[in-house]
Amino acid sequence: MAAIYSGISFKLKSKTTSWEDKLKLAHFAWISHQCFLPNKEQVLLDWARQSLVAFYKKKLELQEDIVERLWVYVDNILHSRKLQNLLKNGKTVNLQISLVKIINERISEFSLSGSQRNICAILSCCQGILSAPALAVIYTAKPELIVALLSQLCWSACRQPEGATIAKLFEVIHLALDHYLRLQHQQANPRRVFGDMTSYLLQPCLVLRHLLLGGTWTQAGQGQLQQTLSRDIRSKIDTVLQGGIFRNDLLSSYKEELLEQHQGNVKIGVLKSLVTPMETVTARLVEPGYVKSDLRTLVVASSVSLLYRLFLDSYLKEENQFLCFQALPRLFDCLQMSHLQEGQMEAPSLSDWTTELLAVEQLLNSVATANIYNVAADRIRHGETQFHFYRRVAELLMNHSQAPVPAWFRCLKILMSLNHLILEPDLDDLLSSAWIDAEVTEFRAKKAQEVLINTVFQTYAKLRQVPQLFEEVLGVICRPAAEALREPLLASGPSSALCACLLELPLGQILDTWSLVLDKFQSLVMPCLQSDPDTALKALSLSSLLHCIMVNMRSLDDSMPLPVVRRTQCVMGKMLKELVKPLLGLLLDLWSSEPELWQQKVSDSALLLSFTWAQVDTTLSLHCRQYCSLAGPIAGAALDVSDLPLLLPGVETQLWKKVEQCVDRSRSLSRFCLEQLYLQRVKRTLMQTRSQSKEALQTLRCDAAYILDSSRDCLSQKTAAAWDGQVSTVDESTYPAAHWHLIVSNLTVLIPYLCLDDVRYVATVLLRTLPASKAQENLAHSEAHITLEKVSTALLHSPLFPEMQSLHSAFLMCIIANCSSILCSGAHSDVRLISQQLPWLLKKDYHTDTAYWETKLAKVGPEGIETRGEIAQNFLSMVKSGFPIKLDEEQLKGLLELLEVISTLRLDSLLPSYHVHLFFLVFSMAVSTVGHCSRPRALQFLVTCYQLLSALQRGRNARSVFRVMYVSDVFEVVLTSLLQASAECEVREDDPAWLQLLQVSGAFLEQLMHMLSQVKLSLVLNFGKITAFLSRYTKGASSKELKIQNLRGRQLLLMALTKLCQSLGPCVKERRQLLEAPAALPELLQQAMLQMGSMLQLCLVPGTTGRRLPSVLLSVVPTLLEVDLSQHLREGQDRIAQVVDTDRTLLSHATLYQDVYVQLLEELPALAETTQAFQAALRFLTLFLLAPELHSKENSVFVSIFYSVRKVLTGPSIPAPVTQDAEPHLGALLTHMFEAGTTEHFGMVLQSVLEGLDISQAWRSELQVTLCAIRLLSLLLKCSLNKEKKSLLWRTCPQIVTALMLQHREACQEQPVALGVVESVLDILAVLLRKGEETIRNPHHVSLAFNMLLTAPLEHLKPLEFSSVFQKMHSVLFSILQCHSKVMLKAIPSFLNSFHRLLVSVMHEGRQRDKGSMDDLPVVLECARLMERMYSHIAARAEEFTTFSPFLVAQYVTEAQKVTLYPTVKNLLQEGIYLILDLCMERDIQFLRASLQPGARDVFKELHSDYLKYHKAKHEGEKRYTA
């Protein structure tokens, strides 16, 4: 056969053979083993190459599809496994250079014209060549080929092609960069590399990097460029640029160019044409035409900062700092903005400014980070060259203010940080354009502005030149300007910066600044105030500045020097006399009925300064006894009426009445400051000794009322602007928030002096301003500033709110009134009838409401019983006949919002009348008709009502409800209402909302009956009525009369019967033990059990419930069985040993229990998907196990239950939380199983565990089987076992430990690591080591644990995974240290190596990173705490570890020198290592100092110094006080 195909090569070259046939023959020849051709691979590749070369050189005419198929053919050969195997085996296949040139030409054509003909196949061929080192040599042997290829590939990508080409193109670029990097490292000729880079690669690489950085392709969607590939390509481009342009052997050329060291003896060599490399790079960077005009600014800006960073990375050393600076002006000159001062171009657009300012910020950041600028060195050695450049940048920024751009502020901030003298000549312009006259609206720009202002204040505070700074500030404020256009001078950002600055200043400087502002105010502003709005606005700015200085300065105290106190007193007196009083006089003299703007601003200034003066005066009087207040002493003898505090000293009350009239209609700063003045007087009056006279109390009440009444109408507005908390920013829009904040924050002071109507008003406003829903509440919390909603929410959640009892009660009654109003609006019958049956709903007066219930509660004896019966009958008649209140959707929504508010209140300590009123209000809501509303909302409403009723009944006065209505009556009304709701509400029986309603209402009924049993309130009467009521429904549950046809109604009855049995059972048992059980109670319990059994039988009829047991029934059956068992157990006997009496009741339910048992065994894996159902099933199986007469004689219950449980644990679909929540129930079941089972049964369980841990399970990838065995073993270790079974377990322990070690090793070798197995193995190993302290005697088995610790994965894990594995490893190591110390001492190297692994991993995870958030820091901190704890336990065993303490210290410092830890992590680890240093002798310290490597030695010196300074000194100090 071989001879037949030997002529293929001739046919391929024949001109008579069609190209279609040639391609088929070539394909056949390649894939067929029967075709024999000498050197076949080379022959076929050469044929295809020659055909393509001939076509592209115009020597051969081919159709387009033939050319494409030729490329595909070459691609198939290059990517074939056959060729790869041949190359791997050493066979040589030569690619001719002509093919590579053709590929380069086609890619070049694609990059220039965008022609996509055959480009995918060509790129794939290129990828095939570059992927195989044996083929890629054709490129690497001729560097110009790879340079040309890489250049054209980058230009192709810069055209931003679309479709399938993108992914392939970037894969090829990635490979080409790899090859070029290797070639670049091998190239010894720097001139050639630099030339290639600047001539061919610099521009395309920079453009491509910019596009990648902007996410041009990664944001496009699925199938586009992957983030990781994009990041890798950017990283490789950076490396290529650094290795080509900033090589170490080019340093001398850069020095010659940048430092101008043109010496005559410069050696001439390969670098002779590279005397200006920086000029070459910048010329190529700014060269026009290589990138689109709309991208040019962006590319140049991003490239400038990149190139400077790479320059610093390559050449930054201490001796090269000036060289590194000299590169900065050259690169800065590439930016457009650098030529603005020379007038060479028009001003850039805002987007260009943003781009270039970001680049300048990055350049300046690099300078600051690298410590390139040394002020002294620059002045002495370089004639302030750097300073002049930074001044040039500063002038450029000042002359072209760009306040909307955040980077503009950040650039100025860096310049200020470098040297304040850079900006000082333009300080007035800086303060004007960056603060006082700046128009900043965007959030990020505001933040950047705040940081700049803070830096300015902090800088001048450190220089102690704040008065000089304020000279400039005041100069800018007072110069002519359109004041109305200025933003508030002290918004929250600048204000907080000034406050921080003032706290650091000495009082002398603050007084200088204060005096300076006062003088400027008096000399420049006061004379021109009248009729000048601009001057009035300047006065307000200066007033806010004075307020900020005075309120935030450090207060005087008794230790202050007397001259400082006297000077402060003098300034205070001068301010009152020469500024505050003249302003008030001007206000009163020139006020008109229709005030102009200047009058309003004068009013604002006068009252702001008055309030500030009064507040500061009070503060100084309190803290400094040497300060003599003009307002008189705070503490003194009893005061006459005439001696009560004035609002301001020297300003009589009559004048204040005029001031009040002036600002009466004002809703801005004046009104707010006047309220603050009255509040100051309230506080000052309260501080007077023995001031609670009638006159003083009257004054306090009047002042409190004025503060509250001054602006009632403003709080009725539906919307109000947010307030930033600064007094100076209060205006008409922010006044409501400021006013409400003032009231709420001082309620504890005001409430005692407010009348009842005022308290109700506050409660009404509080309710009205609360967020309507959780979503709105979250929105209010996210708001940075103060809002009405935020203030009200804070008050509602405040622990002080319940303490203000009058307000709390008024607020509750306000909510009750609103709820009653909504309920009454839903009435569909005669309101008078409702008022007779539910009188509390229509009472509008608080006193009437309270009095009604107090009267009801006061009635006792027969009259009280009559009252109770009347209320119960009213409710029952209304519920049975259709409750007269029907709620629609809107009403339901309103009530839900109010119920949410009620649920946030503390309801455990309400007064009895309030408690009962609220209870019956919510009770009325719960039984109202909601069937016409949407099902989800109606169910949510009922759930909320019953949750609230349960919360109320946990309160202190819960019993007061039963003085109005019997428990049995409440029970009957609730269940009747719910049964009606279940019939009206069309909802599935397994709907989560319906099941939640069942659970919540059941909890409420259980709580009622529990309280009934606890306080013994007519037990027989109440339980008898409840049982009789349920009996009526149960007997006719299937009859049409009683309308319990739906399963939801049966679920309700089952729930009620369950709660009844759960409450009656313990009650009967307790009474029986005390020998005082009434005969009626056990009979009632028997009746309830019979009803429950019959109802269960009804629910389990085939076709009623479907195949699977409903979750509601699952919770009922165990209860019935438990009560059944408890009634028939003999006293004093063990449950397992006892044979249960075959009572008629028990036998009648035996079939039911057995049917449920059989069904549960089948359905257990499916039930395990839900926590509640699974726990109920396990509870039933546990109880079933305790009833031997229910067990089948044919099948072992132990074996059946065990295999069913094992099947559950082996199932892969069970959520982890379900198994964790069910673990106690599983443990209880297994405990009873082992108590009841034989030793053979126990041996079967152990055998099952060993089979699951067998290594063959891992080989078969039976992960769940292994995890099941580990879970079983974990549960087994928690069970209490008898001596025989315990002995069997620990005899099996060696096999278990060995199997765990093999499983662990296998899991660690998998890719990715099977963390589930690793964590489970470590968990169970720690338990085994702890519990086997006395029984594991073979050291080898303990040593196996070290092998696991040394191989457990700690690298490349997510934070939570790392934390989990770390904690489990720590647990194992700690168990060895505590429980197997003898083994540890023999294997101390393994112990220390395991400990070292944990230490290294914590340091690695706790290191500071350049990028990334600190969200994962709490996880690392927890691990660091465990390390500190381990250090302390090691230190506690001083005798065993003293020898190794230097080794532990050496390990720590060696690792600590490699990373920079977060301070919190470092502190924890240091606290631990200090304890080890306690064990070190002096010779150990000397040894460490001598033997550690230089870097580690420095770390150790610092560590030991801190140890002596903080730890040892403290320890020695504590010793002195130790007995």
Task: State the separation between the terminal residues, measured CA to CA.
Answer: 105 Å
User: How many DSSP helices?
Assistant: 69
β-strand amount? under 5%
**What characterizes the major β-sheet?**
none
Shape: globular
Rg, please?
44 Å
Q: Class by helix and strand content?
A: mainly alpha
Outline the low-pLDDT stretches: 1-5, 261-273, 636-642, 860-866, 1038-1043, 1102-1107, 1130-1147, 1518-1523
Number of DSSP E strands: 0
Helical residue percent band:
over 70%
| Average pLDDT rating | 83
Description:
There is one protein chain. The protein is mainly α and about 1500 residues long. It contains 69 helices and no strands. Helix 31 packs antiparallel against helix 32 and helix 58 packs parallel to helix 60. The longest helix is centred in the middle third of the chain and has 29 residues, at about 560-590. It is globular. The model is unreliable at about 1-5, about 260-275, about 635-640, about 860-865, about 1040-1045, about 1100-1105, about 1130-1145 and about 1520-1523 (pLDDT under 50).
